[in-house]
Amino acid sequence: MIESSAPTRIDLAGGTLDLWPLHLFFGNPPTLNAAINLYARVEIRPRRDRKLIVESRDLNRRVTFANLKHLPDTKHPLELILRLVKFYAPRQGLEIVTHCAAPAGSGIGGSSALNIALNGALNRFTGRGYRREQMIEIAKNIETQVIDVPAGTQDYFAAMYGGLQAVQPYYDRLASNRITFDPADTTRRFVLCFTGKPRNSGINNWTVYKETINGKSSVKTNLQRIATIAREMEVVLKNKSWNRFAKLFAEEWKARRALAPGICTKEMETMIRAAGKAGTLAAKVCGAGGGGCVAFFVPPEKKLAVQDVLQKQNARILDFRFVQRGLMVQSG
Question: pTM of the predicted model, to two decimals?
Answer without folding.
Answer: 0.93
